[in-house]
Amino acid sequence: MASFIRGGFFANRKTQIMTCVGILSALCSYLVGDSDVYVTIQTIVAVCGVYFMHKLDNNKGK
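Below the sequence we write its predicted structure tokens.
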């Protein structure tokens, strides 16, 4: 139970999960018709940029 409260397997994967959710959200909004290709690509690039900046920040202190 303590492992579940601390996050268990997903404890250090919050950024990866949020990146996947952002990409899926952008793709689903394109498929539904709420956005066009340019907005979808722009959103995916922005979400991936946040992910890579987070990874770069984590590796900086090592």
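The CA atoms of residues 18 and 47 lie 9 Å apart.
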